[in-house]
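PROTEIN–LIGAND DATA SHEET

This sheet pairs a single protein chain with one bound small molecule, NAP, given as SMILES. Inputs appear in the order they were entered. The predicted three-dimensional arrangement of chain and ligand is reported afterwards as a token string under its own label.
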Amino acid sequence: MSSWWKDVMDRRPWWMNGLMLFSAFMAFIYCPWDWLMRPVAEAEDVWFGILFRGSLAKITEPLHWAIYAAGAYGFWRMKAWMWPWAAVYVAQVAFAMFVWNIAYVGGFGGFMAGLASGGAFAALAVALWNSQEQFGRRRASLKDRYGDWALVTGASAGIGVEFARAIARDGMSCVLSARRKDRLDELASELEQNYGIETKIVTADLTNPDDAKQLAKAVEDLDLGLLVNNAGFGYAGRFDKQDGDRLEQMVQVNCMAPVILTSRLLPKMIERNRGAIVFTGSVAGRQPVPLHGLYSATKAFDLFIGESLWAELRDDGIDVITLEPGPTESEFTAVAGEDREVGEPAANVVAACFEALGRQPSVISGWFNWFRSCISRFTPRSTTALIAQEVMRKQTPPEMQ
Ligand SMILES: NC(=O)c1ccc[n+]([C@@H]2O[C@H](COP(=O)([O-])OP(=O)(O)OC[C@H]3O[C@@H](n4cnc5c(N)ncnc54)[C@H](OP(=O)(O)O)[C@@H]3O)[C@@H](O)[C@H]2O)c1
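PREDICTION REPORTED AS:
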């Protein structure tokens, strides 16, 4: 915990840490109290040094709240959009301090207080203005962080293809694995041509544990620094109407294959003291999903193993993350036998994963998916399950319900 906190605080200078903590205090404690609890008659808000009172102040408070929430998040992540807006907002505070003290305190005392407080905030505004390069700083490439080679399972379609493209773009050579060799050949030529990297193709049917073991063996001589456990599939329908063999295969591909590959490839990463492992989970792993029950259970498995390893391996130089996509453009729905609209582009999902890798144990792609999963945390389990069942009914063929 203490090394995690140190990592977080090392991302910016001490005075920016102070601004981040102050923004968090305003966003989580003061502004909600000010807006929701404080009586209207006592409400006060200052903008550009002008004091607003009563309902006029109440109306502007959500804006203050939003600004501090954005500030806390922006400093936390050191987002590029913080420049110049953090400096501009703090300059506004400096101006407001000066004007407010002169207008509402008055006299020589008010002038001096305005000068002191306005001056302090003006200095902060200047420091923020001069800190542009600290926001949105480009991180080292995947190759520089993890090594020469990556293994992507499920690289013949959908999210796996985009994983391979993003990894190759960052200069890593790729081992591509799936069952459909023609697809892998096509992707390999594209990556070699576009990014000048090396590729290796290993076909494997991950329903068979021996294939997963063979795959791990086929890459043991490479400097493998990144393992993407992405292969997986869903299967829509009532449990008693589903084919038992296919259910078992789903557990093999979605759960057992990542266990086999991770346990076999991790020791070398630990020896080298660097590496990264991605588990592709799903937002379905955050809650029960009737008519997709076993699938959601396999994805809960991926979430928990990934988040646990994130903590266990932190001090060994290994980054672990579980990516939790919502509905994403791929062949998933066709394979699962679902009938639903396609979702966000697979490339966006992969970008969210690599943005978060090394920073957090799991990431839900897309704000709407994140929002939905937050709601399900606060609703009773029965309500969550029954709502999900209604949603799934619309997507599942009648004969499978
Ligand atoms: N798309 C979504 O809406 C969504 C949402 C949340 C999570 N996910 C997760 O994202 C991951 C990728 O899925 P996707 O959406 O990209 O689906 P996809 O387009 O169907 O791709 C699935 C990949 O997994 C491979 N695969 C399936 N069964 C396999 C087996 N027995 N052995 C080896 N490889 C196998 C497929 O390759 P071959 O068929 O060539 O073997 C393919 O490359 C999965 O883990 C899925 O659960 C997807």
